[in-house]
Amino acid sequence: MKRLSVCDSTNPTAPRAVGELAEVDHRIYFEYDPEFLKNPRWLSPFKLPPEPGLLEHRDRTFGPLFGLFDDSLPDGWGLLLMDRVFRKNSISPETISPLDRLAYMGSRTMGALTYHPETHIEDNHSDVVDLHNLAQDAHAVMEGTTEEILPVLRRAGGSPGGARPKVVVGVKEDHLISGTEILPEGFTDWMVKFPSKRDAMNEGRMEYAYSLMARKAGIAMPPTRLFITSQGDAFFGMERFDRTRDRRIHMQTFGNLIHSNYRIPGCDYEQLMKITRVLTKNKVDVISAFRVMVFNIFAHNRDDHVKNFSFLLSSDNEWSLAPAYDLTFSFGPGGEHSMTVSGEGRKPTRSHIHRIAEQSGLTKTNADEVIHEVEAAILSWNDVAKEAGLSTTISRRIESFITANP
To answer: Which terminus of the chain, N or C, has less C-beta within 10 A?
Structure first.
């Protein structure tokens, strides 16, 4: 039987025991710590509420772990790095259990949950990060041309979610260091993305332009910037919203909160609005989620799956909608939105948008104000594309899609 202790490391210097995970005969169990239950935090209110007793994960159609803990694991890119590290240490990934992966992540997770004892794999790392070299090494890893992972790439890139190569770094002006630990004074936590080989080299500039346009639409975004290297690379970066300099913030993605597999599109924006209303009890957050939906429709961001929305739990146990992220031009599965809009995925119209507003308890006035503000932001596309340094060819191609508003 494998066991793993789970801690709430909101305060990294004083982690609080949450409970214990166990694996027996390929079945996953969890039990809350009795002390935690005396003053619990509702870390996963829908699927793992704080209650005594041994709880078995039975939702195997969702995945091998409770969603609460699955949010601590990376998606495609981070898992690829993880498997390469295991192979480098003569460990077959096929023999690795979900608890082994959580132990490998240890305290290098997104959000506030950490796992103990950690699996330590020795390396000789450098704290200084060279983004151009990391991008080149990331491409080599994805192509399968090397088994020797640079220690700094493993250390800096082991925890981010998503399929594209990315790293977490500490940033102070133009000085970058590995961002997996508590940062020195003056540094802030950022995530930097690299284009994959199949992406256009303009990918970073495109996402940066979208972040500028989203702000003009009134969407709450983390600080964003382009990281320009001496070789002419332009990598998109976003400040992490699950960190302050000396604190971690608990977060859950929408998909893992309700046990919806993001790889299998099956959710509607109506469900997102309902969960936002029930969880945050705040109309402002519902309007914010609605605003992102409208932006995704008008700006042709169809990769709007259930893990591209998150919620944050404050130190006083209040939930809120996280700032928006992963906003960029995309076609989505089969050319449709990953989440349907009142049942429509390919060509959602204003009537679908208004139906979502009505179902969410928003007035037609609320909806029309948001639509008007998003439309005005869409009209700024050429300006933000120019500010981001996006090529004219790509800018015009995107414009041909986003000007065809519903």
So the answer is: N
